[in-house]
Structure formats: structure tokens, C-alpha cells
Amino acid sequence: MVTVHSVSVQTDFGGDDVDGLGQPSRVFARRLSWILAIATALLATGISTGAVSDAVGRLRYAFGIGSSTQYRIPSQLVEDVGIDGVILFKQHDINDDGFLSLREFEPIAHQLLDIKSQKQAVDRNSTIEQLDEVVTVETFFKPLLMSSLTKDLNSDYTAVPGSLDPMMGLKKWKTPAAEWKNFAAGHFRQFLPPQNEELFPGKCYYIIEPIVMEKGPSISSNRYLPPSLNRDSWVMVHSLLAMFHPVPFVYGRFAPQGSVACIRAFNSDYVDIMFRIHAEFQLNEPPYYPFWFTPGQFTGHVIISRNSGRLLDFTLHVPNDKRLNVDMEWLTDSEENMEVDIGFMPLMELRVTRSSVPAELDGVDIRSVHVNASSGKPDDTLSTIEWTEEVSEEETVRSLEVKLFPFKKALQEDEDQPGFAAIARQQLAVYRFPVMVMMSLPNGTMVHSANANDLLDKEQVMALSKHTYEDPSEVVYHNLLKEGLAKGQPYL
């Protein structure tokens, strides 16, 4: 039993607060019943109660003992709700006022509504049957280069005593969530095109369709867990990405969204499919505000039998041929104000160790055993395979881009307005992900351009910050415009 004599009783939390719309904007914490209900529900989903030995230290955190706090916790409430219930409430009461506003309650609502169905979906679709063929997928991972970030995080966030470091989840993410995992070959059927549809090289289709709303993001930035995984394709992509980090979102908040695949080659037995995935990861947990980690893209390919019974090859990775390949956004307060930055992820990749093998090999059940290159009989199918029809990888990549960004095809093939199409081709020729700033003449002649990643290059921004009181990024943009005007003078 833990006694908390240093915590005085103060229950006057104030009255209800009403927002500008005339609706209650806070959930009043007067009675313990709803707190207990939330605590019980979340603890049932797997949140650990911890050890009794550290209970006093955890209570000091929960009650703010030794630091300023706006309210005190009644000792009777501690006995009724328990240490974890109080800590759970304290974690989500970000501004420490004794209330949960609707914004503070929102992440809890997502947890209560989604976490149970998500776990059930993953468990249901991770089963490997005895008659299946098995592959081992290995993870190759190097954490984000903190030196690639443009912000001076130490001066920004550690200067205020007691402030929570919003980068905590990123800084702790040093290793993958799983070094390897076994899958049934049949799990990869989600990468195949819809049944009964004609196969041909260059055929593109969605694995996960985008759901971007017309206005604003499709899901809130103020959440810690993804929506329910109610489709098998979502579950498969989630299971793969969860090998990097346990909280992937299989579709992001903003476009481009979803996962798209394209047939590169096929024969009577196998299909070679290239794919591109746009997804995000949530790196933080309460009491830290949400932190969104968004790779530019995942790309890869899978070679699978047309009946999905055998898998010859599978790879998935974040391209690292650019200086910056990850976008990051994090909330800075309960009003959902955001900070952003970009950085470089050196290595984020999944690969199978070899082609699939029977789940029972030489009388041994290997469904939970790491399958390496020497497991089972040698398989030279991949090296000797001949395709009936195929297109180049470059053409397939282009088809994937057009599927994700239909405007590229529309602009290039507008036969009714060939002048506009020609201008579009000139602009698309210099485009690089994610955003380009372009300056051109009315006839489409490109005068000057720059990629957003280059504009936010850390060395350039940091050098300017030493010589100006202005926002360095604004100075960079201003210089870009001046350079463009200078380069455009010869055309005038």
C-alpha cells in the first residue's frame, strides 16, 4: 500500500468551459467513474501496471510533487482509481488544469475505438497454416541522422526547464521493432491485382486506395494510434511496416496517400509486381504531443506465383539516393500548432532471405523458425525465370507515378491544347519530390528552379542564421527570387 501524505486534498476544478460554438469543450473530471472506466479499458488493452517498487516515483510524476501544479489529487481518488488510472489521466491532461478538453480526450477516444479491432485484425491475418509455404523477412535499419535536421533542437526545446522534448520518440528509435518475421507466401496475395482482371505489363491498381478528404487531412494529427484495420490489404501493409516501428499508419494524413502496384512482367506461373507505398509512423506516446514521421515513399517489388502459393522474392525500402528523404511534423500545443522539419534516413529496408519453403521441412515445423538461404533445397527459379511479357523498371516506375499523380498524364497528353502540354512537359522534366519552386517564361522556358529540400538545406540555413535576425528560410526564398529575376533578364 502506498501512502501519499504529501498530496493535499483540493477538488475545486472549476466549472464547464464552453467554446465559441456554444458546445462544451471540456470533459469535467468531477467524478471518478468515467476516469475509472477509461483506465480499465486501456489497461485491458495491454498497458502495464508497472512494479510496486517504483510506485512512489510514478506518483510524484503524476501529482507533480516537487514541481508547480494547478491542482491536487484527493487521496481517496488515488485509492479508488489506482496509480495507473491517475497517471493515465495526468498523461492526457497536457496543460495540468484538472480537466480533459475534447482535444486532450481525442487520442483516448481513438485508442478506445480502434486498438482492440486493430489487434484482432493483425492476429487473424498473421496465421501461417501447416500447408502454407513460409518466408522470413529481415529488417535492415539505420536511425535518422540527427545532424541532417535543419532545426537546432537542443536550443529550441531543452532551454525551458521541465519542458517535454517532442523529439523523444525519434531519439529513442535506434533499432527496428522486429529484426525478422515469418509470413506465409499467401499473405502476399494482397499485392496481386484484383481477381478475374486481365493481366498485362504496365497495369496499375491500388493495394490501399487513398481517402483524402476534399478539405483538410483525412485523419487528425492529434492521435497516437491508427484507425481500425478493416481490410486484409491494410493488415498486410501494416504488418510489414510494423517491423520498423510498432505504430505505422498505412495511409497518411495528406496526399499522396495509399499504396499502388504495377505489373512489370508475367508468365504462366509468376507475376513480377513493383509497388509504391505512402505511409506514416507515430513515434510519441502521451504525455508527449504526437510526432509524425513520414518517409518520402516506400518502394519495392514482389515476385509471386499467380495462385499466391509461392513467393520468389520481396523487397521494400525507403529510397536513400537524395540528401533528404523524410518529413517530420509534431504538435507543439493542445491547439494543434505544428513544427516541421526534414531529414535523412540512411537505411530502412525489408528483404526476404530466400524463396518460400514448405512450413513443414524435413519433418520439422518451421513456421516460427528463421529461414535462411541454406534452409531446404536450393531454388534457382528466380535466376532462370523467363517472362512471357514485360516492360522495363523505368517504365513501370513511371506508370506508378501517373497512377498516384493523374495530372502528370493529363498534362502530357492533352492533345486539344498542345501548347499547354509542351509547357507541362518542361516543368515535369525538372520536378523532384516533394515540392518544386519554378520560375518560367509564358512559353514554358524554365528560367530557375529549386527543390524544397534544397531550400531548407541545413548548412545554408544555419549559415544565414548567424548573420541575420530574419527567418533564415525567408532569406533563402528571397534570394531564390532575386536569382530567378537575374537569370530572366536575358530573355526580356
Automatic annotation (TrEMBL):
GO molecular function: calcium ion binding
Keyword Transmembrane carried by entry: yes
Annotated PROSITE patterns: EF_HAND_1, EF_HAND_2
Listed GO CC annotations: endoplasmic reticulum membrane
GO biological process, one term: calcium ion homeostasis
Domain (EF-hand) ranges: 88-115
Transmembrane region(s): 32-52
Superkingdom in the source lineage: Eukaryota
Key words, A-Z: Membrane, Transmembrane, Transmembrane helix
PANTHER family documented for this protein: SELENOPROTEIN N
Protein name in the entry: EF-hand domain-containing protein
